[in-house]
Task: structure prediction
Amino acid sequence: MKHFGRITGAAAFVAAMALPAAAETVEVAPGVQVTKRSYKAPTNEQPFFGFADKNAEDKAGDEKFVSAIVAATGSREKAFQEITMRAWRALNTGKIHEAALRFNQAFLISPAESAVYHGFAVVAQFRFNDFEASDELFKIALKQPDPVKALRADYGRMLLIAKRPRDAEPVLEQAVKDAPEFGDAWTNLAVARFQNGNAPAACLAVEEAFKRRPTNNSSQDLMTVKNLAQCK
Result:
């Protein structure tokens, strides 16, 4: 019988060099660990400020901002709602740089809220084309307090863009239950079902989407699936 001893000397060094470096994680809120990532952009436009080390002056500025917005709105909860409303508005009008900045402000106010991770997931996807980071952040958003009804719809859409229709379909099946009147969720479900080889089910989702007036952004996808699946 062969004996496999320990790897020693140069062989051990080569084996160690071949192993991928473990990704560093950071606790960004109590019990919430996120993989540390940074991008080529101003720190306040990267999720979690690009995990940059802040000096005493930076921290004092953050505290001053939070105190001012809480005083202006009347409570931390109202401050968070105000800032995230501005963030989503910026995203919906294509101002992703501003949206990232606003979500960082929301993170300073209430770092454990679902909307923080949801927003950062969208920023990671569309600003930095980082689907791995987006996936991680969407999963965290699902576990955090007060997720918005459209969360799974956005997550499923990201998975479709990342060419992961099999992962997207169950997420979107739940998305249309969470927000049954959201036409774009039905459109994305139709796309996922068709890409997974189920044309009849895709046509059912197409029918539901048309009833709910999907946005212009998804109308072309809807017509494409309808034609390719030969829906009535």
Q: What stands out?
A: The longest helix spans residues 56-73.
